[in-house]
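[READ THE FOLD]
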Amino acid sequence: VGREAELVHLNQAWQQIESRPAHGILLQASAGMGKSRLATGFAQNLPHAHLSIRLQCSPFHCSTVFYPFTEHLALSAGITRHDSEQIKAEKLEAQLAIAGIKQASDFALMAGLMGIHVPGRYPELNVPPPAKAALTQELLLGYFASLSDLQTIANNQLVLAHYFQGISRKQ
């Protein structure tokens, strides 16, 4: 990786927190600083199985702070651009259900965020943008926390969360 000092620091941080239930490490730095390589090198050296969640921003999607999360959901759910809106909704619901998210209002929130529109499938969400952003953040935190809990329960292992911080601006 070429970042031995950073790897040592990351390993020390991991050792300090690995006995705690469901947790992770957040890597943040400016674009081009080597976070992806550092996370990959770190994950490869872990002595046991782990859940790795990689969230990356894009210079082509810098107008939405939620892009890394919607991209993760789409990839995890197997959503493709060739899927119909109905299929996209079904795949999204199945992915959210893995994390125990089964409320129609939560599906509506995430489908709206991801641009999935199936008329009549979800209830209307009549909340102002700041409240919608807060609900979205809460739902996403619950989603990822649940995934880490599932991994902890299944393998008694921990979570490495890598968030490529860089160019997203607040909405």
